[in-house]
Amino acid sequence: MSDALEKAEAAAREAAVDTAAVQIALAAVELAKAAAAQQQAPATCQHDHPKPRRSAGEWLAIACAVCVGGVGIAFASLALAILGGVAAIVVLVLRDMWRDFQKGR
Q1: What's the pTM value of the predicted model, to 2 decimals?
Q2: Considering the domain boundaries, does residue 9 fall inside one?
């Protein structure tokens, strides 16, 4: 009987060791879950992101806008020059008419 008793005690010790190993394994799994939950939600990133570069289409659109603006400014300055010349002629004609009117012609 003592042989059966020794086998029972050895089985009980082995079961106790297995139970402790299972408990340690479960604790390790819970710890890994907690660590993964912390890593999934960073508050803010601490490094500088490079500025996005412009594509070729954007540069082409900017160049077209500059060209159209330059042509518009050129036409506007031409119109102002013509307007200034016309205004000078009108002033000269009106001044000549005023002198003629003052002389009594």
Answers
A1: 0.43
A2: yes
